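Predicting holo structure, flavin-adenine dinucleotide bound.
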Amino acid sequence: MLLLEAGADFAGSTSFPAELLDASAMAGAADGHAANWGLDARLTDSRSITVPRGKVMGGSSTVNGGVFVRATPGDFDRWAVLGNDAWSFAAVLPFLKRLEDDRDFGDDEFHGRGGPMPVTRSAPSEHHQLSQAFLAACADLGFAEELDKNGPGAAGYGALPRNIVDGVRVNAAMAYIAPHRDRANLTIESQVVARRVVFHDRRAVGVEVERSGAIETFNGAEIVLCAGAVMSPHLLLLSGVGPAEQLRHHGITVVADLPGVGTRCCDHPQVFLGFEPAQPIPRRVTAGVVEVGLDTMVDGAPVALMPYLAPMAELVPGSGASSVELVIGVLLERAANAVEIALASGDPRIPPVIDYHSLESVSDRANLKAAAEIGLAILDSPAMSGLCVRRTAPAAGADLDAWIRENITTAVHLCSSAPMGPDADPLAVVDQYCRVRGVDGLRVADTSVLPSAPSRGPACTAVLIGERAAEFFTATTA
Ligand SMILES: Cc1cc2nc3c(=O)[nH]c(=O)nc-3n(C[C@H](O)[C@H](O)[C@H](O)COP(=O)(O)OP(=O)(O)OC[C@H]3O[C@@H](n4cnc5c(N)ncnc54)[C@H](O)[C@@H]3O)c2cc1C
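Done. Tokens:
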């Protein structure tokens, strides 16, 4: 087995640079950091951003916020009803248990012990004062407490499951690759950029790559794309798998006409409500970037609110953000708008076009506004009054609709850019066993394959996809 990675490789926890291990910041997500692809994206006519994506062994799990929460049972069952019964909650629960080492709940009906990914929660006695005030405000506003965000109970406020141990973000490479590096049947090549899949007729037979400026081809009996929700569809398109008209426009020979590549992508729109704290709150290494959150519904759409534990300038060094203001992230976890990922060029060195179409849907605007109103109620609550001197974003009296339009951003939880689905789904790119339709010998195994974004952050579901896909590769039925 040959594993190719565009970014740097680090053998284990001791060799990762300390700044990538430090879970109290997201150093690798900074613009220009070597571990970040930093992809330009259009949000609206007046707003664009640089989307961070991990370019390092472990991918985005090496640069992310460390929140490691499961998709809800309802998410899995929704995907199963669409024709993907291998992804029902009952079908995936054994794999959710297998992937984790839950240090709080241990081995029971819903949790697992001894798996590769540690799952920890900060105890109430350790909570940062901002987390405590946030939780108290949620209680005062009448929301329910959720004692286990990885359990089957109703949504509410509580501690977030995280893949953090003693302040270290345990990324997927540390959990899944480091223990197996010495296997005789595994070769790891880093700083190698895949350019396209090579086909003989409709069978994938290899991958063309660029290494140190030279172009080479690696052959393989089966090719698995795990390049993430932006780069996997980009590689499919560059390889002739995608909407035929788009491929021809860029001079690419069509291998399989799959209109769903890059056209049905999902993300979680986000705004940050800001406030000036009464006094600087010292960053605590073990607290992480965020440790508690509220999950709830507005008009049938799941939304999440989370207080970040330090000013953005400290969380993402070099971001140019305020070094004083603290923020509550407000996420819409089921957006109606699809994000589009398309070729800018047939040249593999040119990144794809990412167009968010943010807030084009009336329901997204209404739901994000309703979620922001919950956040403002939290900030204005008596429980927060000791910490919050004044609201800075939006300022008191500002028009909330206009403020959201000017400040919309994303949680960078991209999914569904090569979605799974049954034969009857014209936009399905892979079947439920991750096999790319219309070709042989090619699979996709990352968050691209989800039929839609989960109602929670996708990091845990990304690992689940790896566990599930590993079984499909060896199962005779798939
Ligand atoms: C800054 C940030 C914060 C986040 N915070 C959270 C959070 O707290 N909780 C949560 O649930 N989710 C979070 N996410 C999202 C979550 O981390 C990702 O959804 C998850 O890690 C899976 O990402 P992915 O599927 O896009 O693949 P990735 O993890 O990005 O992996 C793709 C891998 O493929 C490599 N690759 C790409 N193209 C090529 C190529 N052409 N050749 C060779 N290799 C290539 C990349 O370098 C990378 O290693 C965050 C994401 C970011 C960026």
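The mean pLDDT is 95.
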